[in-house]
Specification:
Helices cover 37% and strands 31% of the residues. The chain is α+β, with helices and mostly antiparallel strands and 118 residues long. It is globular, with a radius of gyration of 14 Å. The chain has a domain of 81 residues: PDZ domain (Pdz3 Domain, Roll). 25% of the residues are buried. Strands 1, 2, 3, 4, 5 and 6 form a six-stranded antiparallel sheet that branches.
């Protein structure tokens, strides 16, 4: 099994565990599942965190990959708007973006990237 295939299977397994856990505890889908339609299309697996929207994983060769987003990054802003949660970012992404300017926090340092639809 290649590393890429293993990563994809791992992401799917993690998403399934989060869904089952959320269903068991009676939580809504958007509170438990970090892989939304728009974030999945961009190649992102995201989680809400006290610091911001946490990047759990990215898919190889995805728009997120090409933008330079890395696992462990925090997405703090999109188009200059401070993000409160994954749902807010997903709503912005689902508005048919061609590119989205993101402010990230990586290892304590801020940086700007542009996430472009491919």
């Amino acid at each position: 099994m290649t590393v890429r295939r293993g990563l994809r299977y791992g992401m799917l397994l993690l998403a399934a565990v989060l869904v089952v856990t959320g269903l068991y505890h009676g939580l809504r889908r958007e509170e438990t599942l970090p892989l939304t339609d728009s974030s999945a299309a961009a190649g992102l697996m995201l989680l809400d965190d006290a610091q911001g929207v946490y990047v759990l994983a990215i898919m190889d060769q995805s728009p997120a990959y090409w933008a330079g987003i890395e696992p462990g990054d925090y997405i703090l802003e999109a188009e200059g708007v401070a993000l409160e949660d994954v749902v807010q970012l997903d709503e912005m992404m689902s508005q048919g973006y061609h590119s989205l300017r993101l402010k990230l926090l990586r290892d304590g340092e801020g940086l700007q990237v542009t996430l472009s639809a491919r």
